[in-house]
Design a protein that fits this description.
Blueprint: E1 3-8, H1 12-21, H2 24-27, E2 29-35, H3 38-48, E3 52-56, H4 64-74, E4 79-84, H5 89-95, E5 100-105, H6 110-132, H7 138-156, H8 165-174, E6 186-195, H9 205-215, E7 220-226, E8 229-236, H10 242-259, E9 264-269, H11 279-291, E10 300-302, H12 303-306, H13 319-330, H14 333-346, H15 352-370, H16 373-382, H17 385-390, H18 395-435, H19 443-450, H20 454-465, H21 469-487, H22 492-498, H23 504-515, H24 519-529
Parallel strand pairs: 1-2, 1-3, 3-4, 4-5, 9-10
Antiparallel strand pairs: 6-8, 6-9, 7-8
Helix pairs in contact: 3-4, 7-11, 9-10, 13-14, 13-15, 14-18, 15-18, 18-20, 21-23, 21-24
């Protein structure tokens, strides 16, 4: 395959020399775009999705290193090559943190650049091979089998007795799932499904290895295949919100799977937990979270993005309750009806009353976790099921009432989820309106304030607002700047600072790009018209 490249340089002559005189094709690259500065590069990044960005380090407004830092936040799967006139260890050391695969000194001729590209290609191939290779030594394969044998009963909750936590931690250290130190760690479970270009599920052992390869650059993880899903136990050290810590690795998994594996993947993430004996509940949370991705609002979903209340207590013996919860949350109405019919067929008349109570209790728990209290009250007050219970109605009538009850509950949940996501996006706009002057305002900061993951919030904004967070923020800043230009006598540098820009040149560039004229020209034109 050819790797795609975006070339960024503020000097047109240098940019043309790179795009037209370097032998990209022989090295296995294809230039898909160019930009004259870092701002332009960020504008086209999500559209072009380049595998590699070649950028000068010294540019106006955003330097090459600043661009690399911003690219890593948006597209961690993209690698960077920095061209610099500085032979400085400090620059090279900083570069390591930003997916910079090569640091080249200028001046560099087209022939020299062509030779360097062959080395860069080799490094990118090695990185890719490390992601998708499943070759393991005999001892590694034995340890993996032992790890699977240890984790699968924990995930499925199939231990007959509650396991001793100290023994579990000791075994986890022995299998190198966690380190030898006694430092406290946190865990979470991720469930991932891959689909090929034809939309057919094809999650295999190589995908589990791929996930661990990406995760290894951020934290330790162990992945295995279970019932057609890649299940990952992530080990989290230190402080920080789970959704923030996982934002980049999950983005990189999704982006790399799409570009390199030609696959789409959806990921569900559980709440964090500190006891390995809690793996089973977390596994169920992750399965449910991944199913929420069927709404089209992004490939990654944390269970906390959907369920606001405390974790639901799941009785492992009540498999029917588990399935009913999933159908209420993410199933379709036909499957829901078929499931209730099946429950009735598989239960004896003596158990019918218990079955009804079980279904009602499950509906109550699920609706209360996904809807407002007013909706819950309306659901229970408007349905005649309670009257049926006390009037000795026939089994057929009761079953039909239960189906209607569950259908109403599902509709309520779906409407609540839709309303909640729209409200969430409106809250983002409200936060931007009140804080656009803050230069540090970011998607991560806003997502923390709203208690959802950055991945989920970003996908919601794109779905409902048809724009990304940066675009919404820039538009608000530009409109505020326009009003200040026309309605005040403030200098442009003062307006720049009040709109969240410490660099006046960067502000003026953004303003001209947005309105087609410079700030001073807009002010002059409007005053002359008045």
């Amino acid at each position: 395959m050819k790797y795609t490249v975006l070339v960024v340089d503020d000097e047109q002559e240098q940019r043309l020399a790179l795009t037209e005189r370097v032998d990209w094709e022989s090295a296995g690259f294809e230039v898909v775009g160019e930009a004259e500065n870092g701002v332009e590069a960020l504008d086209v990044l999500e559209t072009l999705e380049p595998d590699l960005i070649l950028t000068d380090i010294k540019m106006p407004m955003i330097s090459g290193l600043e661009l690399a830092a911003k690219v890593r936040e948006i597209r961690p799967a993209t690698q960077m090559v920095i061209l610099s006139g500085y032979d400085s260890f400090e620059y090279a050391q900083t570069a390591i943190n930003y997916n910079i695969i090569s640091y080249l000194l200028k001046p560099i001729s087209p022939d020299e650049m062509s030779k360097e590209l062959l080395k860069i290609r080799h490094r990118m191939d090695e990185r890719l091979a490390g992601m998708i290779s499943s070759a393991k030594t005999d001892s590694e394969q034995i340890r993996m089998l032992q790890t699977d044998k240890f984790l699968i009963p924990l995930l499925l909750g199939s231990n007959e007795e509650q396991p001793d936590e100290e023994q579990l931690l000791s075994k986890a250290r022995e299998l190198k799932i966690i380190g030898e130190t006694a430092d406290p760690v946190r865990f979470c479970v991720m469930v991932t499904k891959f689909k090929n270009a034809d939309g057919i599920s094809h999650t295999e052992k190589t995908h589990a290895d791929f996930i661990d390869s990406v995760m290894s650059r951020y934290m330790h993880s162990v992945s295995l295949i279970l019932y057609g899903r890649a299940v990952t136990l992530a080990v989290i050290k230190g402080e920080g919100e789970l959704s923030n810590l996982l934002e980049l690795p999950l983005l990189e998994i999704v982006q790399t799977a799409k570009r390199i594996l030609n696959s789409t993947c959806t990921i569900g993430v559980s709440r964090e937990f500190s006891a390995l004996s809690s793996c089973s509940g977390a596994y169920f949370q992750a399965i449910t979270a991944r199913r929420y991705t069927s709404d089209g609002a992004g490939e990654v979903r944390f269970i906390n993005d959907q369920e606001r209340d405390a974790e639901l207590e799941i009785d492992r013996a009540e498999k029917s309750v588990v399935r009913l919860e999933q159908l209420l949350k993410v199933g379709d109405e036909d499957s829901l009806e078929a499931f209730i019919n099946e429950l009735y067929e598989s239960n004896t008349p003596e158990n019918a009353g218990l079955l009804v109570m079980q279904i009602i209790a499950t509906v109550y728990r699920v609706v209360s976790s996904a809807s407002e209290k007013s909706g819950l009250s309306e659901l229970f007050s408007s349905n005649p099921i309670f009257a049926r219970m006390t009037s000795h109605s026939s089994e057929r009538v009761m079953k039909n009432e239960l189906i209607a009850f569950c259908r109403d509950a599902k509709t309520l949940i779906s409407n609540s989820q839709k309303r909640d996501t729209e409200i969430l996006c409106d809250k983002v706009v409200h936060i931007i309106d009140g804080n656009y002057w803050d230069e540090s305002l970011s998607l991560t900061g806003v997502s923390n304030e709203l208690a959802v993951s950055p991945n989920y919030l970003s996908a919601l904004i794109k779905k409902h607002k048809k724009k990304n967070f940066i675009t919404l923020l820039t538009e608000r800043r530009m409109k505020a700047a326009y009003d200040m230009l026309l309605c005040t006598n403030m200098k442009v540098v003062e307006i720049s600072e009040k709109c969240g820009y410490s660099d006046q040149h960067y502000f003026s560039y953004c303003f001209k790009k947005f309105y087609g004229e410079s700030p001073n020209k807009i002010r002059t034109l409007n005053r002359s018209e008045a």
